[in-house]
Structure formats: C-alpha cells, structure tokens
Amino acid sequence: MAKFKTNKSKGSPAINTSSLPDIIFMLLFFFMVTTTMRENTLLVRVKLPEATEVQKLEKKSLVSYIYIGEPTNQTLYGTKSRIQLNDSYATVGDIQEFIAKERQARNEADRKLLTTSLKVDINTKMGIVTDVKQELRKASALKINYSTRKVLRK
Amino acid sequence: MAKRAAPEINAGSMADIAFLLLIFFLVTTTMDVDTGITRKLPPPVENKDENVDVKDRNVLKVLINSHDLLLVNGKPGNVENLATKVKDFMAIHPNNSAYPEVTEKFIPELGKKVPMTKGIVSLKNDRGTSYEMYIKVQNELARAFNEMKDEQSLKYYGLKYDQLVDDKKISLINKLVPVRVSEAEPENVGGQ
Asked: Quick check: A126 and B142 CB within 8 A?
C-alpha cells in the first residue's frame, strides 16, 4: 500500500528571504545615484523667501550660485550681509571675475545658457542685491534666478 | 592531498550591511529641486543719456520704499491687490485715456491683427528695501502675467499655459502676453 506523507504541522511556510539583499541593493543604488552632496559649505545664513509663481531650474550644470546673507559665524565676521562665491567671502568687485571663470569652465555652446542663481536671505537689504545685479549686467550674465521656496497659493 | 571544499560564506548578514548603507544614503539625500523666479536683466547701458521716451499713461509705476511700503502710480497700495491692479492696467481698454495706449499688431501665426497694450510695469526699489518684500512684489507681478497668459491660452487652446506642450503654442502665448516689467536704477533715499 502506498504511503502518503501527510504534513501534520500546518504552520505557514517560512518566507524565502534570500532575495532580500538584492532588493535592498536595488534601493541602495537608487539612492546612491540620486544623491547630490552639497558642493559648497555655506558661510552665510540663507533663509530663502517664499513665492508661488516659481519655475524649476533645469540643468544644474549650467547654474552658478551666488549666496548673500549674514555670516554664520557672527562673532568672527559681524552681522553685515556678505556675498559668498564658491567657498569664500567675496566683495561686489569679485563678481565679474567669478562669472568669467564660471564661463570658462563650460564649453562654448553652453556659455550663453549660463544662469546665475541668487540665493539671498530674506532679511537682506536690496542695496547689496542691486549692486550684485549691476555687476552681473556689466559681466553680461543677464539670465538670473531669484531662488525661492515654492509654496501653494493661499 | 585531498582537495578541501571552500567553506561557503554566510551571506545572511548581507542584507544588514546593505540596510546600513541604504539608511546612510536615505539620510544624506537631499532631493530639493532648485526653484525660483527667473528674470532677465537689461543689457548694460552704454551711454546714460539715451533715455527711452515712454508716455506717462503707458507706465504703471510700482515703488517700494525702505520701510517696505508700496506706492502704485502715486497711491499707496498693498501686495495683496497688486496683481489685480496690474491685470487691470495691462488689459485692453480702447479709447480710454486713463489706461495705456492700444495698438494693433499683426500675429502671423493667427493670421490677423490683435490689439496689444503698450503698457509697461516699472518697478523701482530703494536700497533699504528688504529682499523679502522685493520677492513678494516680483511674485505678484509674475502672478499677474501668468494669469494673463492662462487667459489667452484658455481662449485659444482650451488649456492652461503650463499645460501647453507644443513649443509653437507656448511662443505664441508669450508673444501675445509679453512680460513687460522694467526695473529702474535703484535709489538711495532711506539709507542702508
């Protein structure tokens, strides 16, 4: 007589977890690829203003950033608003040189498309911003973007 | 010598290692997209005497002083209704001397003449104006023009402006509603 094995223990079978590492690795690679580490360490405090009518800034490689705000280390640098270019404080006079360098770092076809993103703290007075804008005009970097946070209209 | 089988590596902790790395990247990832208000600066003026004459009725003067107060065409205004004012000013009012002049412009894409306003919004700020207020005003101006674009876009294509995909359509709407905001040279009245 044939003997049938009857599985007496009716507990649910253990889930095969051997593919778990693969799934996790997939997620890991996704985050590794999408992560962008911050390029500049901020030396100025920048709290961006809010706006509703914002556009996305496409092509990050074609954007150069100018930061304006109060220094983070106020005991050392005071509370007057300063300009930061790359990794150091700068004055209004350095902007034309900065733009020239940024242009040189791009290839010829992209130079016209270079956008300058102004990341300015909300408490800054317009005087310094205007000076920067005048310098950008002189350097004919005319495409600018006032960086803002997007909020929905109330 | 007998060949010894290489012991199998226990891969059970692989998931833990991957998790650790995953959590690190999850924490450090910033997925912020840069957003902002894009503007085009006027090219540098070569000789300062070259003033463009614009009729007074064609200009909506928006002034922001060092106390962040608004003056719209000589009257105190506030940010909330600035967009409505700008839209009203830029709308077509034929034969009304209180509003800007209206010209007929031939648009080849439409094959007909379209009335266009000659109005310009002139924005002037003081050196003591706060950046926050300036952005608020810029935002309201952008809103006014975006709403006008939406209106034209709905009229011709039945879609809102930001839903248009065709480049030709977008450029036509931009032609119909040019963003005419001029920024005057700044003043220093209120001091820094």
From this structure: no
